[in-house]
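P.,

For your records, the input lines for the assembly:
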Amino acid sequence: MVNTAKFQRIFLYLFLICIAFIMVFPLIWMLGSSFKSNTEIFSSSSLLPKTWNGFGAYVEGWKGVGRVTYNTFFSNSFMLVIPTVVLTVISSALTAYAFARFKFKFKKLLFAFVIGSILLPTEVLIVPQYIMFNKFKWLDSYLPFFVPAGLATYSFFVFMLLQFIRGIPREIDEAAYIDGCSPSRIFLRIILPLSKPALFSAAVFQFVWRWNDFFNPLIYITSVSKFPVSLGLRMAVDVGEMVNWNQNMAMGILSLIPPIIVYIFALKYFVEGIATSGLKG
Amino acid sequence: MLSSKIKSKKTSLNNQNTGYYFLIPWLIGLVSLQIYPFAASLYYSFTDYSIVRSHSFIGLSNYITMLTSDSLFRKALKVTSIYVIFTVPLKLSFALFIAILLNLRVRFINAFRTIYYLPSILGASVGIAILWRFLFNNQGYINVLLSKINIGPINFIGSPDLAIYTISSLAVWQYGSAMILFLAALQQVPQELVEAAKIDGAGRIRVFRSITFPMITPILFFNLIMQTINAFQEFTSPFLITGGGPIHSTYLYGLMLYENAFSYLKMGYASAQSWFLFIVILIFTLLVFKSSTYWTHYQDGDDF
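Structure tokens returned:
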């Protein structure tokens, strides 16, 4: 009896490890390929390179396409993503605070809009938004990314922060109010500090999603010098697919590093945030 | 005296205007970036709008064309249905299965969870789409491995019968986000109930069917809706891995909308198609909501 239980246990762990391997082996292969020669990539069945090709693929790949290097693509991505994340978190927290702590007319109706826009497919809005941004002369700039973020249109984060703020005892801010704290001060001094885990996980998700985003840059950004990594990578692959396999793999790996770093640093908050508020993806 | 003070303070804290002050950015966004575009897209769907020339009102023509004479529309609808019907149940059952295993008081649970979730973090990116293209290529790594056991080469990307499943496998690979939610739900199932049932002689399967599963149905409901909506809108992976081909076998709805709106600049027509998608998603969501009273179980029955 003890033996069968032990056997089942071992089998369970073996199975879980197998699954873990299946999950990561494409990534390991990608990493290995970035150090392989082009001929080895499509002939060898080993995950890791047999002959060490060095960082050549990285150095060559980094030169990018035409005159634009990955220096530009990466700094563009950061210039696009970081302000978008900051604006999203601030505007969503303000909105969530209002819904969580105040009574006002049409609250139920307005809240229905929050939920409705989570469920609304973005395709329905994209054409008119594009036409509007075109009229404003915002195309080929990062304004189509910053403005929607600053106006709290990422309803998913509003909902996520709202759920979290509702879990903060009301007595705390009522006590502060009696002591003469204004609602804005309560927001800045009490709600924001106490919501740190939720704000943090919202920032992490938004960073990863915006970093990976391909569709919006594809339609809004047209000059190569403004391309974020996602567009730069796609262009490099289209131009050099048949020749530069290892370079594409190397740049692919580099493009995944910022989200992976953010994910690893944020793990602790991450799991809490997901467990308390739910997640799409 | 103190209580009356608190009361008066409370009412001013609940002052109507204060709430609205904090809502100002969101309200501007709601009106200008959501409600207006929503209405505008409905209007455009009755016109031949194109960004390069003036447009005119053409009534239901877009919808009629779409439903009667656009064979690509029918193709996209078919391909998308196959994609959704294949991807969502597979992804969810895999997510639930792994979550159940991890819930068996597994050690190193955090390490497993971290690894299983990783693909969901990276999944929608260009880097991963390129990786998939290389992995499943005719001479790709999967085929190199298969050739070792004398199978193949299998044309995962070039065959019209298989390509859609290759795209789908990328989505299933990202089951981590659904799994984490299932796991959180499983961990909240009261152990007393499970123990009590065991004492009453219920086996593992019976416990799962009668206790655990009903308790996690709200999360199943949430996952089902979110994953289905996402699957209907898939764009990046077919765009980058197959480009919609071969012979439109991976021509998903999102890809068709993109081409009509931004390649052919038929924005009125694309708006009509986006409304069709919206209505399909709406009907699906309503059906799930309606049916959920029969299969989801809420402990408190109350939210918001």
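Two observations worth noting. DSSP finds 14 helices and no strands in chain B. Residues 1-11 of chain B have pLDDT under 50 and may be disordered.

Regards
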